[in-house]
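Case study.
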Amino acid sequence: MSPSDNGVSRRRFLQGSGAALGGLVLSTWLPGFIPHSVAAEVTAAGRLGDQAPRGYGAYVRVGHDGLVTVISPKIEMGQGAHTGIAMMVAEELEVPLSSVSVEDAPPDSDLYADSLMQFQATGGSTSTRHSWQPLREAGATARLLLIQAAAARWGVDAAQCEAREGVVHGPAGQQLPYGELVDAASALPLPESVVLKTPEQFRLLGTPAPRLDTPNKVNGKAQFTIDLQVPGMLVASTLTCPVYGGKLKAVDASAARQVPGVRDVVTLENAVAVTATNYWACQQGLQALTVEWELGEHAGIDSEQLDAALHSASSKDGVVAHSSGDIDAALSGAASTFEAVYEQPFLSHSPLEPMTCVAQVRADACELWVGTQVPAFAQQTAAAVSGLPLQRVQVHNQLIGGAFGRRLDFDFITQAVAIAKQVDYPIKLIWSREEDMTHDMYRPHYVDRLTAAIDAEGKLQGWQHRIAGASVLARYIGSLPESGVDSDAVEVAIDPIYALDSLQVNYIREEPKAIPVSWWRGVGPLRSTLALECFIDELAHKAGKDPVDYRLALMGQHPRAQAVLKLAAEKADWQTPLLAGQGRGIAVSAVFGSFVATVVELEVQADKGVRIKRLVSAIDCGLVTNPTSVLAQIEGGTLFGLSASLFNEITLEQGQVQQSNFHNYRQLRINEAPGVEVHIVPSSEDPGGVGETGTALIGPALLNALAAASGERLRRLPLSRAGYFPVKGA
Amino acid sequence: MIQLSVNGTQHQLDVPDDMPLLWVVRDVLGLTGTKFGCGIAQCGACTVHLDGEAVRSCVLPVSAAAGRAVTTIEAVGQSALGAQVQQAWLDHEVVQCGYCQSGQIMSATALLQRQPAPSDAEIDAGMAGNLCRCATYTRIRAAIRDVDAGGAA
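After joint prediction, the assembly is written out as follows.
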């Protein structure tokens, strides 16, 4: 549902006041749900009918001090979400940005479920998209009520008053700050509708704003989960069975207990934990353990076996996720066909803050302090493990030291609660980097097999696209719908920006079993974009056409995609000839509600050193909230994807993940990082997502550039597999 | 007992000689601005200054720091140069998740201390030990270029 389908009149606001709620409180809702818990609370405050709908709920509170607090279900993990959210509210509420603060919402699936994902989560590049309409409406509604309250006090028409900088101004020069009006405003009936500003009227939105959360991140004051101290707390660290699905058989902890600082050795079904006064003692204790594992059924699995199974699956039919035209007729009647197989490896998330969670389990309550993208799931797993009712579990969300999808899972939270349950003090579970990397939930290995039908004139008739891989969606929510189609896996593939007479997409689910899978920045659209953009590039070359011209001719239905493609090409001097050994590659896609194109210009040396000379991106993400965040996300997201494309692949040997730390799962360093030029297309369309877009485009642009420069068409990431390595210098 | 000077304060600490400085600073002294990322000197999140030089505290035994001046992110802003670097980080909107930035700022300050106007190649060489998974590298480079260390020194 797009925001424009969902006008103000159909949305309800909760409104409340008084000491219990601390000023004027508005809560935003999308239609279709009933919020039992809060309905009761706010009805008690006297302001709510019992039919208030629920859904995406963020609270906007104007306090007696005039300060504004937004309780947001969208967390800050470095993407700038909280700053953007504050800007949306400040814009319509007519307050300075500095008077708005954003707090994390507590876990409550009823209240804070994302309107698209249907659960409380930060992910899928949704924070701006799903906040944009309701938060501006909440701000505008609050402003209207405050103006009406002032007008009533002065005995003037509200239309003669206006609000600026947190103050209502009357026709005779009267002034009242918001803080003095919140009680009166809370007693007023809600307006039937509000008029939102047009983009031309924005004073904050679309203008660069400094991030609200960064000052404490440059002086050591910002506290992440790993930094927390709870009274009586000890540090815990674990050794988990090196094979997924394996169990702990026996442990001799006598030597570990002798390590100074070690308090307890706790056994779990598949792990041993040591608690101690500090992390170092925990590690010393773990090293002193003698552990015997029951490695289980996956102990004999190597990557080669998983590869072979996946390749074999990629030729099967699976289920049809999309079919238009007649691909069988197109292929059988084609003058020529062209097949290519693209492959993307298992990947670890490896955020720099390893998995960490502070947990305390008492007889009557459980408390968690943890940076999580899914606080309601954290609460649920803690309740399940501790045996306590949901309402006895408190979750305090924390700053996140990188997530990239990893903190959409809560395996480490489950483990922390299981440890805390066995001891009578709070614990701070800290995974070593080795535990983190070898016990990640990995981005699946995928194989995309595409077969195109080309007619006698060389015109593309359509293609069949087979997508084979594990289903993250099924693992995450428990099952797939009856159709058997994983909607994430086939996203973008079933709706490419290219006009094709025939298109068939088959989804072949192939579970590796020996390795758990999860969301990774870019998710399904990243995978599809790599396959489609490499394939279309190969088709262009086969047709003897320029890759930009070839794409443009097929993109007539997508003027915004055409525009970013043209802009990126123009800014990257696409037409300027290059020397031998140099090349440019391009990719374009419609992902997360935005349109993005990326050009890579590079040079390949005889020794396979790759010197990236330029990275140029153009994005149309609709109305921009904070241009600074858009630029930073494209820059960082692009280099994040470049790092994985160059270097990363998780492999299994005897069921065990072979990569354990940054020495053998290396990451892009500053001396290997090219600059990223980003161009934003001015747009008045609804906002699109940004955080994952750069990551989704760099892989295919890189592979296409490599082909243009060297003639070698790599179809499998990472580049290091084929012996390529980055070389710095323009 | 180990005699340790951290941010100008003297501490007498009863800790094992081989305990890494990182965990003494974080878990014993409670200064948590210095971060843990890898434990094997691959990521630089744990960077502190030892007599003004950037070192990876996750692999430095505390005994090696005894009798020398340790400076952490909590105190780097007390020097004019450190404060300038922190401000440049904000001016250039370097920070995303922020977890690595303590280490980045410590490395950058040490670099600028010895090379007040580093070339891009010198910036790359001086900062190559610090990973940023959000990949804020282009802004880190711009922020360092922008610090007028000659004026601060």
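Observations recorded in class. Chain B touches chain A through 56 residues (CB under 8 Å). The CA atoms of residues 12 and 97 of chain B lie 35 Å apart. We will return to this complex in the next lecture.
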